[in-house]
Amino acid sequence: SKEKIALFTIFGGTGDLAKRKLYPSLYRLYKKGFLAEKFAVIGTARREWTDEYYRDIVMDSINGLAESYEHAAEFASHFYYQSHNVTDIEHYSTLKKLTETLDEKYQLEGNRLFYLAMSPNFFGIISQNLKDGLLLTDSGFNRLIIEKPFGHNYSSALELNEQIRASFAEDQIYRIDHYLGKEMVQNISAVRFANNMFESMWNNRYIDNIQITLSESLGVEERGGYYDTSGALRDMLQNHILQMVSLLAMEPPTRLHDKEIRAEKIKALQAVRLFKPEDVPHYLVRGQYGRSTVNGEHFEGYREELNVAPDSQTETFVAGKIMIDNFRWSGVPFYFRTGKRLAEKGTQIDIEFKNVPLNLFNDNSDEPLPPNVLTIYIQPTEGFSLELNTKKVGLGLETETLKLEQKHSAETTANSPEAYEKLILDCLNGDSTNFTHWDEVASSWKFVDIIRQAWDNETIDFPNYPSGSMGPIESDLLLTKDGFQWHWCP
Ligand code: NAD
């Protein structure tokens, strides 16, 4: 049977993430039979809610997904609400009682999954209270899923990790990076390790450069208060981008299992060149969006957004060049850029192959042929494309670029599992492949901290890119000075 058996305790059960992502994902698993009779969910938060009210909220959150009202109600009947202040140790004894009652009622075999869907400020205290309040079992599994951000620099991440590790072992901790739940990110391994054509060329002899773009068209919306203390570097580079870099750069693992993959990812991250503070301006570009009018629509600048300081030095854009100092990648730049209020929303990876040694097709100029490019589209549409040079039909020897493209249909995309659904199922299976290990977190913070410190020592003239562009001009110069350009130019 594929049925998984567990009690989920969701801290922050009244929150946005729980409603938008967690309840719908649990329902999808229920629909597919991964959750059936033997599961229960305790939602906790400070508010005083009844079970009935909570179940209504859960039903609302799966509205549109549900097979029928009865099916949704049956699902929701597994949900229980417990008002709870996470800092109050007394409250954990009430929680323990409910946990034990449900464990028995649903025959949950002592399997416990704790999901911390609330501010990371509370991760340490919750972990400690779960242990001190005797909520961890000896009979089943104890697993902890935690949300980002994991610290705001290396030392705070280390401190947080030590707090959590006092109650949970590394292999019980599942640190979410929802990018790792995306189908196409997981597909990076398939592209590489299932196609000899690519794997044999996956190195500095054949690849010229790799470009990763995570572009958002929206601004900070109502998250200005949080974002202004974070910025693009911490919000995107430390986790999502470095995770993608490690998947692209790692050596082939001996098996596609969590321990083996993780070991290779960590080795790749440890080979990422750490910059000296004085090198930072040569490798990194930061930006902040300013006001502009695009197609008649007016956009405010970042500094005019709600809860953002009018002289904010927070970057809403970062681009950079990562170098990996190992045999496979020596000399190959991994460029990345990410930002808000850019021209188009989308995430894609472009892999540019080296040119043929000589262009035989152009007698009159030294123009090289366009490079072969493999593109992995991650969102909003998933798919691939491969650009090849072919002969133009006609008498001459002119070439043109042929783009072989496969993008998943809207239907396939709609039916593909949600990132959170996949990740929750992975956790139920005890598979940590798509979660971040502490060693990965540590390496990436060390890389990011150097950049942050260099930037904090120097004020910059913001804003420096208009809303609706692809970032500051320096982002383009970063590549042109190496003889490249961004492949994706919306
Ligand atoms: P939220 O503010 O909507 O919810 C926070 C929850 O914590 C609420 O249920 C609140 O009642 C509860 N809470 C706060 N203080 C408490 C206390 N002392 N005792 C008990 N409960 C308390 O936040 P959110 O957007 O759901 O985000 C939760 C976590 O998920 C954060 O770490 C966030 O960074 C992360 N995250 C959220 C999203 C998203 O889409 N919302 C995406 C990625 C990561």
UniProtKB/TrEMBL annotation:
Keywords: Carbohydrate metabolism, Glucose metabolism, NADP, Oxidoreductase
Pathway of action: Carbohydrate degradation; pentose phosphate pathway; D-ribulose 5-phosphate from D-glucose 6-phosphate (oxidative stage): step 1/3
Sequence positions that bind NADP(+): G12, G13, T14, G15, D16, L17, A18, K19, R46, K148
Binding site for substrate: H178, K182, E216, D235, K340, K345
Pfam family, one: G6PD_N
Residue intervals of the Glucose-6-phosphate dehydrogenase NAD-binding domain: 10-187
PANTHER family with a match to the protein in the record: GLUCOSE-6-PHOSPHATE 1-DEHYDROGENASE (PTHR23429:SF0), GLUCOSE-6-PHOSPHATE 1-DEHYDROGENASE G6PD (PTHR23429)
Active site: H240 (proton acceptor)
A GO MF label: glucose-6-phosphate dehydrogenase activity
Domain Glucose-6-phosphate dehydrogenase C-terminal: 190-487
Identification of the protein by name: Glucose-6-phosphate 1-dehydrogenase
Protein family: Belongs to the glucose-6-phosphate dehydrogenase family.
Domain of life: Bacteria
PROSITE patterns in UniProt: G6P_DEHYDROGENASE
Catalytic activity: D-glucose 6-phosphate + NADP(+) = 6-phospho-D-glucono-1,5-lactone + NADPH + H(+)
Cleaved signal peptide residues: none
EC identifiers of the protein: 1.1.1.49
Lineage: Bacteria, Bacillati, Bacillota, Bacilli, Lactobacillales
Record function comment: Catalyzes the oxidation of glucose 6-phosphate to 6-phosphogluconolactone.
SUPFAM superfamilies given in the database record: Glyceraldehyde-3-phosphate dehydrogenase-like, C-terminal domain, NAD(P)-binding Rossmann-fold domains
HAMAP family per the UniProt record, alphabetical: G6PD
InterPro entries: G6P_DH, G6P_DH_AS, G6P_DH_C, G6P_DH_NAD-bd, NAD(P)-bd_dom_sf
